[in-house]
Amino acid sequence: MEFSAANEGRPGVVLADGTEPLPVYFDTGSGGHMHESSDWWIYDGTLGAPVATQLRGSCSCGWRGETLHPLDWETVERHGPELHDTSGPEDDWDQHITEVEARTVPIPEDLIDLLTQVDQRLNALACYAPLAALRAIATLEYTLTQAGRTAALNAEADDTAGNTIGPGLGLPDRHARRRLLRYTLRR
After folding, report:
1. Contact, 157 vs 125, CB < 8 A?
2. Same domain, yes or no, for 10 and 97?
3. Do 61 and 144 belong together in one domain?
C-alpha cells in the first residue's frame, strides 16, 4: 500500500468506560524484554488484561472510528479469535483510507496506466528473462532515485505553510517528512 505503515488498520478495542486501553505486557520469563500486544482478542479479562466491550476501526496514523461495534465474548472462539467477524471495524477503516486517499494529490491517469504496464511487463520479464528484468529494474531504480530526489526537494521548497506535504501524500506529517528525507538522502 502506498500509505505504508503510517496507515495500517486493525480492529481497536474500547473498554466499558469508553477509554482505549494501553497495550498488555506479558512476562515471558527471564530477560529484559517483555512481549506486548494490543490485538483486540487480548482484552478478554484473562492474564490481567482489561475487558473490552466494543470494537472500532483503528489506524496507526492515530485515527479512531466513531462507530462502536459491540463485542460479545460469548461469540468469540477462544482457540481461533482471528476468525471472529470484525468486518464492522475493518469497513470503517476502509472508509477512513478512502477519505485519506481523496485528500491526496492525484496521480495523472496516463502515469497510472504507464506504471501498470511497467509492473506487468517487469513481472512477466522476471519469469522468462530474469537477467533482463534485473537490468530493467536497475535502470528504473536509477530513474526513481533521480526523480524522487528532485520531487522531494521541490516539495520541500513548495511547502511554505508546513502542512501540505503530509495530506498530499496521505501520510501523517512525520511519516511524510521521513519519506522526503529518504528520497533526498539517496544517491
Report:
1. no
2. yes
3. no
Q: Is 48 found in the same domain as 117?
A: no
pLDDT tens-digit series, residues 134-160: 999 999 999 999 999 999 988 888 775
Contacts of 165 (CB under 8 A, 6+ apart): 155, 156, 159, 173, 176, 177, 180
Whether pTM > 0.85 for this model: the answer is no
Range of the domain at 84: 4-103
In contact, 39 and 86? CB cutoff 8 Å: no
First to last CA, the chain: 25
Angle at 1 between CA 103 and CA 166, to 5 degrees: 35
**Total number of domains in the chain:** 2
